[in-house]
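Record 1 of the preview.
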Amino acid sequence: MNLYRAELRRIVRRRLTMVFGILAAAGVLVLTVAMWIASSPGPTEADLAAAQAEADALNAEHTDFNDCLEDERYFEENGYDWVESDPVYQDMTHEEQCAAITGAWTAEDVIYTYSFDFAAEGRVMLFGVAIVGGLLMMMLASSAIGAEWSSGSMSNLLVWHPNRLKVWGAKLAAALTLGAVAVVALVILAFGLLYLTSSVRGEPGDLNAAWWGDTLPQLARTVVLTLGMTALGASMAMLGRHTAIAGGVIAGYLIVGEMLVQLISIWLPMAFPERLSLYTWIGAWIIGRTELYDYPENGYASTPEVMVITATEAGLLLGAIVLVFGALATWAFQKRDVA
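->
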């Protein structure tokens, strides 16, 4: 049988694969239910009328608002003379200006409701779903490699397939194939359920060409990121010959690595300390670019220096990390004894 197909079948049929698949789908369902419960299509006309009546009653006791309504020169006399020349307020009536300046009550203040706007909020949720899927695939790939070392099946496999590079390549390709299919399927599932939720319980928004033009490249880069995570998990397990290696490295970075970044940024007077954090580079890769600001000693009143990290720069750094671990894993598997 073709080695790649055999490895793909093995990793697909693992019990942990089924468990992670169920957990991922359940997570998307939980997110959908949470948004369904939290969101509302909005208040009815009767609800708005009742809320407006309550707001009017509260405004009747609002001294500043009433004083402003009764005095056309209220803004000049109370230091708000800039209101008349401010473009934000120029198209407002005097009553609307008074409401904005004095903080008068509105119906929306009294009867606040949240409506899930898919166009505005759904993109970030899709990124989150993809990254969680990537973490699961990272652990699954690590487990698949580590289990073979623990059980001794790696030795048996090399009896039939002595070409170690071919064996390692087939295992890595199978993990990446499953990772790509699983993450894309998870994102599609999340998109469908969240869009349905926004259509019924919120506002889908305008998914126009500009929205798709921004979203599709970012989602594509996120999927590539999850494939890098999958390869990283498999490489660390191959390098350490144990499933726990990948989990330990991840936990160590999250607990110790980011803490060191924060301490270094406090102790050392360096510009742009955020660039030491892997999260900064991941964000730049997904979004397309990120800007870091370094303010001089006299504070935020001065013009800051700006450091721009592009998706290309972030991709080169993240790709280099994956390639280094992949190369080390390949070297270790090729040179070390299997037993």
